[in-house]
Write a structure and sequence with these properties.
The structure holds two protein chains of two kinds. By secondary structure, chain A is mostly helical. Chain A has one domain. Helix content of chain A is 75%, strand content 1%. Chain A contains 23 helices and two strands. In chain A, strands 1-2 form a two-stranded antiparallel sheet. By secondary structure, chain B is mainly alpha-helical. Chain B folds into two domains: 58 residues; 64 residues, no CATH class. The chains are: A mainly alpha, B mainly alpha. Chains A and B meet through helix 8, helix 9, helix 18, helix 19 and helix 20 of A and helix 1, helix 2, helix 3, helix 4 and helix 5 of B.
Chain lengths: 500, 149
């Protein structure tokens, strides 16, 4: 199939009234929740998962993608206006964005970040279109052993990019894999870890886990922290000055390129992209002293980079079925609930879903620019709603959402249980993202592992004899060894220090 | 004692506990052979790895030390969890509004400030909103107040 034909198919799917509506709805809801302080995209998507379950698959994925971008945009808005990053990838935007706002240039910072993000999103979408097919074709040559190794690589790479102790992150992956096994064994029908609870025989539902671990735990942590708020900020003119445009344009371009590259890496994604772009701009700048005091490049580049990376991080998920970060793991979870097994088959078997989703990503990005800039006043008002009103309301929507999954209060109880577990994870400094990746990949990985071992008559050497598998495993091992080297370990710790 | 109340040591313990727990619960699952794996093969493998990792994390934490764990604030996590559990228990038995009132009341207590008038306002707004959106708008099969509507 040619590119234009694919795009044409995507356009016909994405531009139906129904799908446009869901894209718009997703963007609105995503922005709404993303603007609320302390709730990033992962928590937003986790909490909103239930509302997409009753939609057709394409519409639900389009809506989720919209929520994801919306949450990112919302996060940038709060970073600039009140110095509260909604998520890790907007942390750097705070540095210069908030300073610009204090100088009365909030409007300019917002519009530059919106336009930069839109441009980067467009480029990111084009990259997906170009690379999706070759990658999918490559993935179709993979045997069970290769897949198993690919997943191992994906999991390890994700761990490397988690902050904190690597051993703990690896243990979290295994814990996630173990939780993924709960339910009926597909090969023998045996009940595993179900404690004779009938609701558990299909496995622990993904949505309550995600809602509890990310949503509830985040609310509790915010309640403890007592969120500080800046006073109301005047947005000012949305139009940047000519000087600002001149300085922002190359920064946006560089940020887009860097972000697109880093987004594809397993374990990469918006946060890594934004941080690297900021560092790059600071190094290239003739006046590095201005950074941290309201340099327009310091807003433009990271915002472009995080959006580009947010786009391209869809590539490994859509073509290989390997989520590269927590958001993509949620997407995989949502697809599985819809009865779609992510992987190379999605593109060949469901081309309308695949290309429709890609085109609607671009539409979503365009909508966000339109929604965000003129309506900025409304979002600013939202920021002044006190958290003591919001927290109970969010909890309530989580509970009703969890109930609506299968009209069962058992799911609400699960949300409570995983909320406690998530809180323990936070307190012990264990990252939730590796757990979620393990959970999502667990069942498939077991399946591939068992199939590979069956085909090789129980010889584990199969993982080393197949060239693709061997290459992937060597890469995995290299990554682990690299991380153990003292100099890299130190640099990594410093990088995360800056983030925290 | 200080030495053991660290984030790393306690998380190591948690992994050990999960590993042991999974081994215990999964003990009756047949392991099978590498060629024909039983339902217990992969779980046992994962539990053992988790157990080993937990032990390593514990040892490293004791030998080279780690960040002390902060004193948890019990109020928010307890009240939030309690609120959700009460909601789950009341939702089908008493209906949306009673469950909502209890959840909002309890979870509002979890924050630092609690003003009864504000909380009541919040309850009224959310009751109307949820009834309109979920019952009338989305037509969910739920009762607003059990036995009445």
């Amino acid at each position: 199939m040619d590119l234009l034909g694919n795009l044409g198919l995507g356009i016909t799917v994405a531009f139906t009234f129904q799908n446009l509506t869901y894209a718009l709805l997703g963007c609105m809801v995503g922005t709404l929740i993303g603007v609320l302080p302390g709730i990033g995209p992962v928590a937003t998507i986790a909490m909103l998962l239930p509302i997409t379950f009753h939609l057709p698959p394409t519409a639900s994925l389009i809506m989720l993608a919209g929520i994801y971008y919306g949450a990112q945009y919302g996060g940038s808005t709060t970073s600039i206006l009140v110095n509260l990053p909604g998520e890790a990838s907007s942390v750097v935007t705070c540095l210069d964005g908030y300073q610009m706002a204090r100088k009365g240039r909030a409007g300019a910072a917002l519009s530059i970040s919106a336009v930069g993000s839109f441009f980067a999103g467009t480029v990111g979408t084009i990259i997906i279109v170009i690379f999706a097919e070759p990658l999918t074709r490559m993935a179709q040559k993979f045997g069970p052993a290769d897949y198993c190794s690919l997943m191992a690589l994906g999991l390890v790479a994700a761990v490397v990019l988690a902050s904190g102790s690597i051993t703990k992150a690896i243990a979290m992956v295994f814990l996630g894999l173990l939780f993924g096994l709960v339910g009926t064994d597909v090969n023998t029908g045996a009940q595993r870890f179900t404690f004779d609870v009938p609701e558990l025989s299909d496995g622990i539902d993904f949505a309550p886990i995600a809602m509890g671990l990310f949503g509830i735990a985040e609310i509790v942590v915010n309640l403890e922290k007592h969120l500080e708020r800046g006073g109301a900020i005047k947005v000012g003119s949305l139009w940047p000055t000519r000087e600002e445009i001149r300085r922002a344009t190359p920064a946006i371009l560089r940020g887009t390129i860097l972000g697109s590259l880093l987004g594809v890496l397993p374990g990469g994604g918006p946060t890594l992209g934004a941080f690297s772009a900021y560092t790059l701009e600071k190094k290239l700048s003739k006046t590095p002293g201005e950074f941290g005091k309201g340099a327009v490049e310091g807003v433009a580049a990271p915002e472009a980079a995080n959006n580009a990376a947010a786009q391209t991080s869809f590539i490994p998920m859509l073509t290989l079925g390997i989520p590269s970060n927590a958001v993509m793991a949620l997407m995989v979870g949502a697809m599985i609930i819809q009865g779609i097994q992510p992987g190379p088959e999605v593109m060949t078997k469901k081309p309308d879903l695949f290309w429709g989703m890609i085109v609607s990503m671009w539409i979503g990005n365009a909508m966000l620019v339109i929604i965000n800039l003129p309506m900025i006043g409304m979002w600013v008002k939202l920021l002044t709603v006190p958290y003591r009103y919001l927290a109970p309301a969010i909890l309530l929507f989580c509970c009703i959402g969890a109930y609506s999954l299968q009209n069962s209060t058992f799911h609400v109880m699960q949300v409570a249980a995983f909320g406690v577990l998530g809180y323990i994870f936070v307190r012990l400094g264990c990252e939730g993202a590796p757990f979620l990746l393990g959970l999502v990949l667990g069942p498939q990985m077991e399946e591939y592992f068992r199939r590979a071992m069956l085909l090789s008559r129980g010889d584990a050497m199969v993982f080393l004899e197949r060239p693709i598998s061997l290459g992937l495993l060597i890469t995995t091992a290299l990554l682990l060894i690299l991380m153990a080297l003292p100099s890299i370990k130190k640099a990594r710790e410093e990088a995360f220090q800056e983030e925290g | 004692m200080e030495r053991f109340l660290t984030k790393d040591f306690l998380s190591g313990l948690m992994f050990v506990a999960f590993g042991l727990g999974a081994l215990y619960v999964g003990q009756h699952l047949a392991v099978g052979t590498p060629v024909r794996m039983g339902p217990g093969y992969v779980p046992r493998m994962l539990s053992l790895i988790l157990l080993a990792l937990g032990v390593v994390i514990c040892i490293v934490a004791v030998v080279s030390g780690s960040e002390p764990v902060e004193r948890p604030k019990w109020k928010p996590i307890t009240l939030v969890t309690l609120g959700i559990v009460c909601f789950a228990l009341l939702f089908e038995r008493a209906g949306l509004i009673p469950a909502l009132i209890v959840l909002i009341l309890i979870s509002s207590l979890a924050g630092e400030e609690f003003k009864l008038t504000e909380v009541i306002g919040n309850i009224v707004v959310l009751s109307i909103l949820c009834t309109v959106v979920f019952k009338m708008g989305l037509g969910m099969n739920i009762s607003v107040v059990q036995g009445i509507w």
